[in-house]
Design goal:
The protein is of the alpha/beta class and about 950 residues long. The protein contains 30 helices and 29 strands. Helix 9 links the parallel strand 9 and strand 10.
Length: about 950
């Protein structure tokens, strides 16, 4: 059994020895420069025990110690390090702090740092050791004083203190503490709503005689939370003078560092910090030795370890292994160290150090009321505070508010109708009206002595807020007439720097306390100022001028499409043709019936059928030429029904097009292709540096559109709206509240599309303003009480919106522009009629001349024939004379009667006497034909018929009178 045990131990020894590189040393010396013999003895014992800890020291590797006591004289300390420590080829040095003096650890760091021998400090907390340009190889297991800023930020978050005054000495530690506090407070996590703001920084030179001037400045500030970094001596002076001004009494809160807690006159109620294990030198010695051993173990696996320098005489050589060993030590993490979790940052400073929160209570007793420690489960630092155990200044058990709320605020606004109207006072006017507020204008481009009065939506809101949450105010207009833009400015002292202009700039630089204006809430502004809850919700919309009605000369044709008009025209003529054919070929048509009056004038010819079809369609009376057959009349009834439907539909649509139609907007909204297409000749713009401008810059999908409109942007909304009214600007993109107001005022303006980029108007305040919560609660109450709705009705709608809506619903009055086409059609009909009558008269005149020539020839022929036929009877000639005379008398009587009836047409007169002519003309005598002629006369009732070879009638026989 014993043999097996020995064999197993030899195997373990061999395995452990194999882990250590054969090329690297197996003996390491560790130096120590300690404050007392007790620490030196503990240092030796710790290294002795380390050699038996196989977790850190493999078999075959041995650590030796070389410790000396620190001399208060830094020069002697440096010489002792060279003589007694470096000469022993130490791989690292653990340095403590002297009982008196502060420079000896720096002397050790300088000496060892020259050769890059790592130095691990266990008590030095000065911020100077963090500078790696000077202390190139210095690490420490204690945090510097500046790391207390991390705890301060957590305490302020816990107590919900948003604004503080920072007091520090002008030495390196004080400035390092301020820098770390500002960095830490600005890099808070995103889910934390509170961001600590430093209202004022008070810096003083060490060795104070009094602190009165600084205290007066602090007393005039809003914040009542003071963060103090000072030495014991300086803190005593500050506490003494603060007590004289009652600034250590109720309503104030003091949070101080460890040094200030040591002052003899530290007031009751002050909170301070104390580093856990800060004076436990043994615990730090043990943690530093084990961190060093862990680093050497890790370094052996990947790096070649050379021997350390043997003296300080060879000043030109730098130990590269020491440089690499420093980096390995900096990466080490000791989870269960004597002082807690041991880890280092990039500068070699201890992180995750634990602090106690100390409260000064009665009889100067220091009571631990909280702890800042590393939480293993969450793997990060955590703060716990027992607020019930805290005694605050003035022996109060309730936490002070931390600020003094000013009762008089400087309020800024800007002219923006209908939210703010401005009126310049005349020279003879001294006061504003009852509904106005005096608002001087500080624009350098205008007369600074001029007085202005403001009224409107926001002014009524400001009055109500001042009454509700009890504050007074002085109102002023924006210095440059703009809401504010984040622009780059070139300052001679700093160079290029981004700053806010306008209203936002005044608030950021704390020259104003509040902005009461239509100020859009957006992320860019919210990063620098505080916003209340919105007092009015709105979005972005587009304002444009209503397009004029597109009335043309053929507007009356709009109810039907071109295709339908063509079909109607074709239908009229097709129906007319079918009517003519049905009536022509029907056995019951006029063409087939016996003419009782001997004429065919009432028969339905093609012209009459077309006239009938048009007459039915246009609802005009039909005087003649109506269908006679049943089949044609059935078609006529169907055509009448068709005409009724067509005319009724046309009338209804004509009313919709010409009477009730209202012009639509040109644009459909922000997604309209004409806005997105930069090639279109469409001008759109917004206001430079406004919230709308920021919105377009933020939206990637609107980048092309923004590049186009950026060159057209206006300085003010008023100028853009004026250009929209005159048609110079086609689309103005702005807040919906303002544009809806303008559209309500002028019914020729209209907003296009739906709202986009929805947001709200809020009250602007300084970051961390104590008025933020009160203003928000007041605005919510005003919403619930209906006050905000009454302001909308009073200032924004003003009743004009209803008037425009009523105007939209009433029919349009038709004018000549709408119905010009109809009048032109009538004029064309008149001109066409006149033209046709001229043509008809010319044609008729030509026809009459032709007929006269024919009648003369016919008369001569008839006379010659008559004389030849009656040559055997002179009595017949006498009878012919009397017949001619009778016809002449009848013709004269007929002409008079017709003239009295208003008929002067020669053709009509000729037709009237036609029957007499046809009965009186003798037939030509043929041999053997006298009996036949006599029988015809007898069959016709004694009237001689017209010969077949003669014309049926003579148009005009007046020239035949003998």
């Amino acid at each position: 059994m014993l043999v097996k045990t020995v064999a197993f131990l030899l195997f373990l020894y061999k395995a452990a020895a194999d882990q250590w590189s054969s090329a690297n040393p197996t003996v390491f010396n560790i130096g120590g420069v300690l404050s007392n013999n007790e620490s030196a003895h503990y240092f030796k014992e710790t290294i002795l025990h380390l050699n038996f800890d196989q977790q850190y020291v493999p078999k075959g590797v041995t650590y030796y110690d070389k410790a000396i006591l620190m001399d208060p004289n830094p020069i002697r300390t440096a010489l002792n390090v060279c003589k007694s420590v470096i000469s022993r080829r130490v791989y690292a040095v653990v340095v403590s702090h002297p009982l008196t003096g502060d420079l000896s650890p720096a002397a050790v760091s300088y000496t060892c740092g020259f050769y890059h021998i790592p130095v691990i400090g266990i008590s030095s907390r000065d911020s100077a050791f963090s500078d790696k340009n000077i202390h190139v190889s210095f690490l420490r297991t204690v945090p510097p004083y500046s790391h207390q800023a991390d705890v301060w930020v957590e305490m302020l978050k816990h107590f919900n203190y948003k604004k503080v005054i920072f007091i520090h000495s002008s030495d390196s530690d004080g400035r390092a503490l301020l820098g770390r506090f500002q960095t830490t407070s600005q890099n808070l996590e995103d889910d934390i709503e509170i961001k600590v703001q430093v209202e004022s920084v008070i810096e003083f030179e060490p060795g104070l005689e009094n602190f009165i001037d600084q205290l007066i400045e602090m007393k005039n500030a809003q914040s009542r939370v003071y963060l103090l970094y000072a030495s014991k001596v300086d803190a005593k002076i500050i506490f003494r003078d603060a007590a004289l001004y009652n600034m250590t009494e109720s309503g104030y809160a003091w949070i101080v560092t460890e040094q200030a807690l040591k002052a003899d006159n530290v007031p009751e109620g002050i909170l301070g910090l104390k580093l856990v294990n800060a004076t436990n030198e043994k615990a730090h010695i043990r943690d530093s030795i084990y961190v060093l051993a862990s680093a050497l173990r890790d370094m052996n696996q990947t790096k070649e370890i050379t021997e350390a320098p043997k003296d300080c005489d060879n000043s030109g050589s730098i130990w590269e292994t020491g440089r690499e060993l420093f980096n390995f030590i900096r990466k080490q993490i000791l989870l269960n160290g004597e002082t807690g979790k041991v880890a280092f940052d990039d500068q070699g400073d201890r992180i995750h150090a634990e602090y106690n929160i100390v409260n000064i209570q009665r009889r100067k007793s220091q009571v631990v009321v909280g702890k800042y420690y590393f939480h293993k489960e969450s793997t990060k630092m955590q703060l716990t505070v027992e607020e019930k155990r805290i005694l605050w200044p003035g022996r109060k058990l309730v936490k002070p508010e931390g600020f003094m709320i000013p009762t008089h605020l400087k309020v800024l606004t800007i002219e923006e109708k209908p939210f703010v109207y401005t009126r310049k006072l005349g020279e003879d006017q001294e006061a504003c009206l009852a509904d106005e507020i005096l608002c001087p204008h500080f624009n350098s481009t205008q007369d600074e002595t001029a007085k202005y009065c403001c009224k409107g939506f926001c002014m009524d809101l400001l009055k109500e807020l001042s009454k509700k949450i009890n504050f007074t105010y002085s109102l002023a207009l924006s210095p440059d007439g703009q809401f504010g833009n984040y622009v780059i400015k070139n300052t001679s002292a700093i160079g290029m720097k981004k700053e806010w202009t306008g209203l936002i700039g005044e608030l950021v630089t704390e020259r104003a306390d509040m902005i009461v204006a239509p100020l859009t809430i957006n992320p860019e502004r919210a990063e620098f100022i505080e916003f209340s809850k919105p007092f009015k919700y709105q979005g972005i919309t587009i304002l444009e001028k209503k397009p004029s009605r597109s009335s043309t000369l053929v507007s009356f044709l709009q109810p039907f499409s071109n295709t339908l008009w063509i079909l109607v025209m074709v239908s009229v003529h097709v129906v007319a043709l079918v009517l003519y054919l049905l009536d022509r070929f029907s056995p019951f048509g006029r063409f087939k019936l016996a003419n009782t009056d001997g004429t065919e004038e009432d028969a339905l010819n093609l012209s009459s059928a077309i006239w009938f079809a048009w007459g039915v369609l246009l609802n005009s009376g039909i005087g003649e030429g109506t269908p006679r057959s049943f089949s044609a009349r059935v078609l006529g009834m169907v055509w009448a029904g068709f005409a009724m439907i067509i005319v009724a539909s046309y009338t209804a649509n004509l009313a919709a097009f010409l009477v009730l139609e209202r012009p639509k907007t040109k644009l459909s909204g922000i997604n309209d292709a004409r806005l997105r297409n930069t090639m279109e000749n469409l001008t759109c713009a917004t206001v430079k540096g406004s919230a709308v401008d920021m919105y377009f810059r933020r939206q990637v999908e609107l980048s092309n559109m923004y590049r186009t409109m950026e060159a057209n942007n206006y300085a003010t909304a008023e100028a853009a709206i004026a250009d929209v009214k005159i048609g110079k600007l086609m689309a103005f993109i702005w807040d919906s509240s303002r544009l809806e107001f303008e559209a309500a005022q002028d019914c020729e303006l209209v907003t296009a599309g739906e709202l986009f980029g929805r947001s709200g108007y809020g009250i602007g305040l300084q970051k961390g303003s104590p008025w933020a919560d009160d203003v928000t609660l007041a605005i919510l109450d005003l919403h619930e009480s209906g006050f905000m709705e009454s302001l909308d009705n009073k200032w924004i709608l003003q009743g004009n919106l209803q008037q425009c809506e009523q105007f939209e619903k009433t029919p349009n009055t038709l004018g000549l522009k709408n119905m010009a086409g109809v009048f032109i059609l009538v004029a064309a009909g008149i001109v066409g009629g006149v033209g046709l009558i001229v043509i008809e008269m010319a044609y008729k005149k030509h026809q009459i001349k032709k007929q006269k020539r024919m009648e003369l020839a016919r008369h001569a022929a008839d006379k010659w024939r008559g004389c030849v036929e009656v040559y055997d009877s002179a009595t017949y000639c006498v009878l012919l004379y009397f017949l001619q005379k009778r016809k002449s008398l009848r013709l004269t009587t007929t002409q008079r009667r017709i003239k009295s009836n208003g008929v002067n047409d020669t053709a009509t007169i000729s037709l009237a006497v036609d029957k007499y002519q046809r009965t009186g003309a003798p037939e030509r005598a043929w041999p053997g034909d006298s009996d036949i002629r006599q029988r015809r006369i007898e069959e016709s009732g004694g009237v001689q018929p017209v010969p077949r070879y003669l014309p049926a009638y003579t148009t005009d026989v007046s020239h035949l009178i003998v």
